[in-house]
Amino acid sequence: MSRADRFLNACRRKPVDCTPVWMMRQAGRYLPEYREIRAKHTFLEMCKTPELAAEVTVQPVRRYEIDAAIIFADILLPLEPMGIGLEFAKGEGPVIHNPVRSMADVEKLKPIDAATQISYLMQAIKIVLKELNGKVPLIGFSGAPFTLASYIIEGGGSRNYEHAKAMMFAEPKTWHKFMEHLTGVIINYMNAQIDAGVQVVQLFDSWVGALGPQDYREFVLPHQKNVIAGIKKTVPLIHFAHGATHLLEMVSEAGGDVIGLDWRCNLDEAWKRVGEDKAVQGNIDPISLFGSKEFIRKRTKDILDRAGNRNGHIMNLGHGILQQTPLENAAEFINATHELSKR
């Protein structure tokens, strides 16, 4: 079985020869070859130069026996076409110069046409597909409505999401109108990537774990359902909500062919909660890759044992790979997954 078939079969809960594996943030700064390019260019330059984005996307596929590539991009790329000033400040991450805080701010936002306004990403996708030549599938991605809304309302990263939650609780009409706008943007952005040729898409809800169950149901779930309903069904969709073990049933209800799991839950128990009619992805703690090779193998085996060779498990970290991760430990994780899960 080819690596490409292995990954796509697992997404669709079909038989595989061994468990497929990839790593979130695998195209990134833990790789020396990435850092070499990054030393000469800003982060946004890399995103907006198709040849550079394509090169960075393919680097981990050359280095490791991973079963999928993920396009090098950022969840905030749709912000500029919406009329939001975005900058990646050195050492600070993303900074938004005109945060959305009122109904008037929401009404100023523009819809986007990702195929033309983010055409650099679509070009990068085409270059990568040519380079991969069917060896492994390519994943496209977007941030989910809550996560994008939080960045835009807070003006960047946040610990407590006070502005975002205050809008939800004090100005619910503004919140829902903003989420509706983002729903349209995300559907357009994801479908443009599918049209460009990605074979799988992943929706990242990186910050939604900050919400309690009641708030997720009222303020997020209807919009998340609408986003997932609007994305073309020609490719599998992975729905990953970070820090959201307490919301798993609702995350599953929102939709997705594959539900991503972080490391805060046991995979077998989480799969029961998600429903066995869905595939699952995950879920080793990224810091496990700082342990000894024996430890990495033991943790990998534990997760594979919990999956029990059932169709529909994709091995991954419970969040992105960390910058200081030893390269040989990432290789150990990938190779152990394949070796220990041979059917």
Short note summarizing the structure:
This protein is an alpha/beta fold and 343 residues long.
Describe the structure in your own words.
The chain has 343 residues and is α/β, with parallel strands linked by helices. The protein has one domain (3-340): Alpha-Beta Barrel (TIM Barrel), CATH 3.20.20. It is 50% helix and 10% strand. It has helices at 3-11, 32-38, 43-48, 50-63, 79-82, 103-108, 114-117, 119-132, 145-154, 162-170, 172-196, 213-230, 248-254, 267-274, 293-307, 327-340, and strands at residues 69-70, 86-89, 93-96, 138-143, 200-205, 237-241, 258-260, 279-281, 313-314. Strands 1-4-5-6-7-8-9 form a seven-stranded parallel beta sheet, sandwiched between helices. Strands 2-3 form a two-stranded antiparallel ribbon. β6 (237-241), α13 and β7 (258-260) form a beta-alpha-beta unit. The longest helix is centred in the middle third of the chain and has 25 residues, at 172-196. The termini are close together. The mean pLDDT is 97.
* CATH uppermost class: Alpha Beta
Distance between the termini: 11 Å
Shape: globular
Secondary-structure class: alpha/beta
Share of residues in helices: 40-55%
Sheet with the most strands, sense and barrel status: 7 strands, parallel
Radius of gyration: 19 Å
Write the layout of secondary structure elements.
Elements: H1 3-11, H2 32-38, H3 43-48, H4 50-63, E1 69-70, H5 79-82, E2 86-89, E3 93-96, H6 103-108, H7 114-117, H8 119-132, E4 138-143, H9 145-154, H10 162-170, H11 172-196, E5 200-205, H12 213-230, E6 237-241, H13 248-254, E7 258-260, H14 267-274, E8 279-281, H15 293-307, E9 313-314, H16 327-340
